[in-house]
Design goal:
The chain is an all-alpha fold. Helices cover 75% and strands 1% of the residues. The chain is built from eleven helices and two strands. Strands 1-2 form a two-stranded antiparallel sheet. Helix 1 packs antiparallel against helix 3, helix 1 runs parallel beside helix 10 and helix 8 runs antiparallel to helix 9. The longest helix has 34 residues. It is found in: Membrane. InterPro entries: GPCR1_Superfamily_Member (IPR052921), GPCR_Rhodpsn (IPR000276), GPCR_Rhodpsn_7TM (IPR017452).
Length: 306
């Protein structure tokens, strides 16, 4: 892995490459399909009902669902191409890594905004509309997407000037791409530092909002519905963030363990697919709107979820 001349020093395998890529493709494509099927009804009711469009949490949820589906679609396209060719070019690998990282950034920022929105709505309901005015809601959403686009453009500009274009590699990982960049040590250090600041800062903020809400609504937490929702949110956060942390900080130590790599991918995709279940279908308001879409729903009593 010391050079980028395509002689094979960048390649490694524990499982045969074709089988490895096939498993990756199956995991990602199934997750993409499941997440799309879960997301479409939620996106439909959010975009078709003005009563929920002016609420920040549903605007954030819609953008979160779009981000997750784009991320899974990107993975499906990448692994489909890699499986067909049994390799990918170095520049395509770098683009996939950067785009995936920025989708994760968008996901984390929207999750933070969602947590802060719920915290303010419950603790300071009278000041909520003042804090999150219509203009600020649009600014928050636009700022998150613009930041991700800016980071992507900067990273691609650097890559196009420092990476060889058509060097084939079998496995796409940051520790394979980084040595091919000049000043790769600086690049890896910057990536680790930014990831640590982003992830640790984000999760401290999310955890702080969660603990604050749990203290303020401790009586409400005695209900079964509240506990189910809380446990699902914690599980989704763990399933999404744990593989991300391993992939950033520990993957170099696991680079010859394809079974662990596949397990990380499966858990990460599960964390993404839990987003519509945790933040969408647990909402009583969205449940009511979804129920109205069902045939004969007006003649039946709406169910109350536990």
């Amino acid at each position: 892995m010391e050079n980028c001349n395509g002689t094979g020093s960048l390649w490694y395998e524990q499982i045969q490459t074709e089988l490895f890529l096939k498993i990756k493709l199956v995991i990602t494509s199934v997750s993409c399909l499941v997440n799309l099927l879960l997301s479409l009804p939620l996106l439909f009711v959010i975009t078709r009902n003005p009563s929920v469009q002016h609420k920040l949490r549903y605007v954030l949820l819609a953008n979160l669902l779009i981000c997750d589906n784009l991320q899974l679609l990107l993975g499906t396209v990448h692994f489909s191409t890699s499986f067909y060719l049994l390799h990918c070019s170095l520049i395509n690998c770098f683009m996939f890594i950067i785009l995936s990282f920025n989708f994760c950034t968008v996901e984390i920022f929207f999750t933070i905004a969602f947590s802060v929105d719920r915290c303010i709505a419950i603790k300071w309901p009278l000041q909520y509309e003042t804090i999150f005015s219509s203009g600020r809601k649009k600014t928050i959403v636009a700022a998150v997407w613009l930041l991700a686009i800016l980071l992507t453009l900067v990273a691609l500009f650097v890559a196009l000037n420092k990476l060889p274009m058509n060097v084939p590699i079998e496995r796409c990982h940051l520790f394979i791409v980084a040595p091919c960049l000049s000043d790769s040590g600086i690049f890896e250090g910057y990536n680790t530092l930014m990831s640590a600041i982003l992830l640790l800062g984000s999760y401290v903020c999310i955890l702080g909002c969660l603990l604050l809400l749990c203290w303020d609504i401790r009586l409400f937490l005695k209900t079964q519905r509240a506990w189910v929702t809380l446990v699902m949110q914690v599980l989704q956060l763990i399933f999404y963030s744990a593989p991300l942390l391993v992939d950033i900080f520990l993957i170099k130590n696991l680079k010859h363990m394809d079974d662990i790599d596949l397990t990380i991918s499966a858990i990460f995709n599960l964390g993404i697919s839990l987003v519509p279940l945790v933040y969408g279908y647990r909402s009583v308001e969205l449940q009511g709107l979804l129920w109205k879409l069902l045939p004969l729903s007006r003649n039946t009593i709406q169910p109350i979820s536990c």
